Amino acid sequence: MSVLPLHSLTLAGQSIWADQISRAMLDSGELARRVSQQHITGVTSNPSIFAGAITKSTDYDHEMVRMIGEGFDPDETYAALITRDITDACDVLAPVHRHSNGADGFVSVEVSPELAADTPATVAEAREWVKRVSRPNLLVKVPATPEGIPAIRQLTREGISVNVTLIFSLHRYRKVMDAYLAGLEDYSAVGGDLRKVASVASFFVSRVDTEVDRRLESDGSSGALALRGKAAIANARAAYGEFLSVFSGDRWDRLAAQGGRIQRPLWASTSTKNPAYPDTLYVDTLVSPHTVNTLPLSTIEAYADHGSPRPSIFGPEEIARARNLLAELEAAGVDYQDVVETLERQGVASFAKSFVELQDHIRAKYADLR
């Protein structure tokens, strides 16, 4: 299997992370092989990923039986299972973290999506994950809800590295970046070492096309239909323009001089949902320095097989066109603010549903295995 196309993304300044983790990947050495052979330099997880890994296999049954014997309750079992996977993945990625001087090699774990509207509870659970995993290359995922923004600042202030997830809106993204910078300033003020803090901002991609295309198809006019499949890429490229603007200038220069790290844009939800679109659409079009693209295993394989060995890097011209495209969509009757608010609600609800299903499955298995 050729890995040249994946390596070409690395050479373009983009990190490729696997949007998948499971006990089988860890025990079989699959994750380690992907790190060494496919230039995978990070791992993301969420409740949906763990729900699939635990509920659709028997890989965790033996460990669950052991925990039952040791008196673990279902909630403790859930936390222990995920902690082990995340910790082991952090250890696999540890060499990448060391060799990049702390810039890459991260593994993400998400706070309960049921806490998305509760700032203090989000902060408290994030602290617990840091204690459980106790690895320098852990990122704690915090949703970019209105209540998540102050949690981002508080956790950064404490020197905790955060993956800000479920970002759809450019306006919300600016608040995310400001919260990160303010947190770094707070941490610096108490003598914190800024070199030890990292962050990514996860901008969700394909779901934007799913929602916008639905609205364009409902309109049905030729002008509206011609705009299908363009909103997600435009939104992400416009977000990158915001990133370039914020991580430059006096405020950022002061933090960078103290060892502060940029908060890298991360493209999430990059599998193609519409079969009419190329399976590497959200990889080919979103290559630029200082970014991360987190890919499902199927998309990693697709890009390794037929991705370009010379990817096109987008820049200022493409960012300007992206902003114009978003304006065209508004003119065509697509309410951007309503789209992003809808997607945020759906995203939180989807992850919360997976979280509850996973807990229910563990309780059911717990009862069966007793």
Polypeptide structure, described:
It is a single chain. With about 375 residues, the protein is an alpha/beta fold. Helices cover about 60% and strands about 10% of the residues. It contains 17 helices and eight strands. The chain has helices at about 5-10, 25, 30-40, 45-55, 60-70, 75-100, 120-135, 150-155, 170-190, 205-220, 220-225, 230-245, 250-255, 280-285, 295-305, 315-330, 335-370, and strands at about 15-20, 40-45, 105-110, 140-145, 160-165, 200-205, 265-270, 290-295. An eight-stranded parallel barrel has the order 1-2-3-4-5-6-7-8, surrounded by ten helices. Strand 7, helix 14 and strand 8 (about 290-295) form a beta-alpha-beta unit. Helix 4 packs parallel to helix 17 (about 335-370), helix 10 (about 205-220) crosses helix 12 and helix 12 (about 230-245) packs across helix 16 (about 315-330). The longest helix is centred in the last third of the chain and has 34 residues, at about 335-370. The radius of gyration is 20 Å and the shape is globular. It starts with a helix and ends with a helix.
